[in-house]
């Protein structure tokens, strides 16, 4: 639910806050671009954490959580799934009954990461410029 909330909030900030401000004849502004970028990076890490915890819970509930593999093996495999945008490894690990749930979780995770990257692209250019002592 938290990842879904992040997606909805980012859609609201990215598209609809500016429209609401224009309808009220107000200037659209944010308090701090630096704070917004830091919060978006936090959202990025949080989405990865929730994806990892949901996948480990599915494996634990199914009883497929092998005693030979460590938690770090599952962390590495889940990060690899997200980094390559490939859910084939999930389907190998999870049985067919929970495969649809795992794919839904994967889709939600990718959507959240994509929205975070869109918002980061929007707000990074608003960061204050850094003055340089060295002139070229």
From TrEMBL:
Keywords: Membrane, Transmembrane, Transmembrane helix. The chain crosses the membrane at residues 39-61, 104-127. It comes from the Bacteria. This is ABC transmembrane type-1 domain-containing protein.
């Amino acid at each position: 639910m938290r990842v879904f909330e992040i997606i909805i909030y980012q859609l609201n900030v990215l598209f609809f806050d500016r429209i609401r401000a224009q309808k009220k004849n107000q200037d659209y502004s944010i308090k701090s671009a630096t704070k917004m970028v830091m919060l978006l990076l936090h959202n990025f890490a949080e989405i990865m954490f929730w994806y990892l915890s949901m996948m480990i819970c599915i494996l634990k509930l199914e009883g497929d959580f092998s005693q030979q593999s460590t938690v770090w093996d599952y962390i590495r495999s889940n990060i690899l799934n997200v980094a390559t945008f490939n859910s084939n490894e999930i389907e190998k690990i999870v049985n067919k009954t929970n495969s649809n749930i795992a794919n839904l979780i994967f889709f939600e995770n990718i959507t959240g990461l994509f929205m975070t990257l869109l918002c980061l692209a929007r707000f990074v250019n608003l960061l204050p410029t850094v003055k340089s002592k060295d002139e070229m």
